[in-house]
User: Fold this.
Amino acid sequence: MKLKHVSGLIVLLLTMLRGNSQVINTDSLNVYPESVVLKVYDVASKVSLTVSEQVALAGFFSDEEQNLYNMIQNGASTDAMDSAKLYYKYQFNNLLTADEIDMYYNARVSKDAERVAKLTTAMLQQKYNTNGMLQKEFFNIYYKRQTDLEKVLSEYTDPDVLDSNVYNTLVNYDSLADQYIKAAAGTAFLNTKFNFLDSVVGVDDHQWKPLTNLYYNLCISNTSAAYADIFNAAFSQVYTDISDSANYTALYNTEIMNNATTAMQAALQEYEQKNSLSKHVIRKLTPVILQREWALATINKIFPLYSDDKAVLIDTIVNTYQPAIDSLIAMDGNPANASQIDIAIKYSDLLGLNQDQVNKLQLVLLEYNRLKKEFRKKDAVGEYNSTVYESKVLNDILTNEEYTDVLTYKYQSTANSLAQQDWAEVMKHDDFSSKFDSTETVLELTNYHLSFLVAYYQNAFDKELQYESCARINELMPKVLVILKNEWDYQSAYGDGNDTFLQW
Assistant:
């Protein structure tokens, strides 16, 4: 009857496996009871076994059942029974190879382990709003944790050693899980950055996805680091092009502005010490230098290390702002070295200019600097003659009186210098010099030269008008200068005619 039951069981098993390869050898197992066949099938359904391995397992399971039954019959204690069961579990592990043991226990607990891993992963996803990468890692961790625990518990060893092995397995996997939980907990910080950046400049998924994965990986490998530091490291490795500057200025505006402000203050101090700048010029320089330093600070944030490309960007920024800075600094130097436009802007308040005039002056200054730059590309050592351009634009923007005031300030010192040269010539002739008071004569000569300079530059846009204006001034040439010219053939700074006048 027992053999009939075994045969019936095998038939049932074969029916269930129809269409698949045979799991156990029916002929070899007919002599064993149903319980033994079921155990062999349990192993064979998870691990591919040869016929001899199936027979060996059947013999092992048969001896196990008989010996455990005998112990029950003889009244063995519960502890003795538990110890015997662990012994046979240990012997069972020795019958299979290491790979077969892994396959067996993985398959044996796979459903339960999968259930635990799925539920744990779902719980963590709900709690931290994790992405697909972390969910996959969590599933693998908790699935492997369950299968490894089963293998540890199957080992036959001293209870204290078993407890230690179980403890170590739990610690290893829980420590690993803690690393990923640290990363998962950083999702809130990452989302905050994403939402802000997306609201300001928009987020490119092609960049944000690799940033997210890198952020999580850095969280896992740097559990002691702050989320902000980890994010900054990930961001700098993904956003690496100058086209990403808007993203940097959005996220790091405070840091960039602080660095720019510090650099601006140092630059202003250096300019002030070298050039003895007035408060007015410093006030004008401040926003220009701040803009330059802000651009440089942005470049340094995007490219913290030196590169040839970074050097080119820095040179471009410096060259862009330097003309305006030089122009402003020149306003506090010799006025003759400053452009007429610079002077008009500098003294716009004193001249009583309105905002529209100032705005126009700012625009023509940009064009003036552009023209000057273009000239220097063609002639690096020559001097750009801006006379005609400045005369044209300033006559359009300023009134006649306003323009005269600008030229008066610019050429006052030049006129005085020319007058001193004239007086030095007078002093060479004792009989002649005694007829003139030095103070009054130098003042008269200064006024003459200044009037001539104003007429020349103010009318430079029209050569005919310029000539006529200068000729009228020459008709009022001071007597002392006329005598010098007629008696001693003295040549004034302007030569014999307006057409030979040199630019000052």
